[in-house]
Amino acid sequence: MYIIVGLGNPGREYEGTRHNVGFLVLDKLAAKENISVLEKRHKAVIGKGMAAGRKCVLAKPHTYMNLSGESVRQLIDYYKADETAELIVISDDISLEPGQIRVRKKGSAGGHNGLKNIIAHLGHDSFIRVKIGVGEKPRGWDLADYVLGRFSKSDREAVEEAADRAVEAVLTIISEGPDAAMNRFNSVKKPQD
To answer: Is residue 22 within 8 Å of 8, Cβ to Cβ?
Structure first.
C-alpha cells in the first residue's frame, strides 16, 4: 500500500503559495486517478484508491508544514506501509528552478521544515520524495515570506506544467520503481521560452 503525501498548509490563505505545490500535485494525481480526497483522518485529509494499478492512500497533512511528520507517522503506522519503499512525499524545493522536478530515494531536509519534521518522526531520511522547484528566494527576502508567497505568471505556468510531470513521476515510481522515475524525470530541464 503506497502512502502518497503532498506537503502544504491548510486554509484558503495558503492556496496557490510556493509552499503548497505538494497539495497541487496531490490534487492533480487525485483527479487523474479519480480518488476523492475528503476523509479527515491521521491529522490529514485523505483519499483511498488505486494509482498505477496499486492500492494507495493520498494524504494532505493538516498539521501545517512544520509538523507534517506527525501525520506521516500516523499514516505509516496505521497502514503498515514500508516507509522506505511505499512512502512518497511531494514537496516544494527552493534549490530548483520553477518548472524543474527531482526524484530522490533519500537525503537531507535541505532546510525544508516539513521534510525535517518527517525525518525526525521516522528517525531516518530514506524515503522517496518528489520535489518541485519554486526558485531561490531573492536576496534580502525572509524565507518564510518567500515560500508563503505566490508565483509570478510565468513561474505559475512552469510550476503547473511541472506538477503534471510530478504526477507522472509518482505513477512511474509506483509502476516501475524510483530508479526508473529518477532516470526519466531528473534529466528533464525546464522548457525554454
So the answer is: yes
Query: What tens digit of pLDDT does each residue of 104-136 get?
Result: 999 999 999 999 999 999 999 999 999 999 999
Cell of 188: 528533464
Catalytic positions: 19
Do residues 58 and 42 make contact, with C-beta atoms less than 8 angstroms apart? no
Instruction: Write b or e for each residue in 55-79: b if 16 or more Cβ atoms lie within 10 A of its Cβ, otherwise e.
Output: ebbbbbbbbbbebbbbbbbbbbeeb
Task: Say which residues have a Cβ less than 8 Å from residue 8's Cβ, sequence separation at least 6.
Answer: 14, 19, 20, 21, 22, 23, 24, 60, 61, 65
Which whole-number Å values give the CA distances from 71 to 7, 64, 117, 142, 153, in the listed order?
11, 10, 10, 27, 32
Q: Give the C-alpha separation, 61 to 76, whole Å.
A: 13
Q: Does pTM top 0.85 for this prediction?
A: yes
Return the SS3 of 59: strand
Whether 109 and 185 have beta carbons less than 8 Å apart is answered as: no
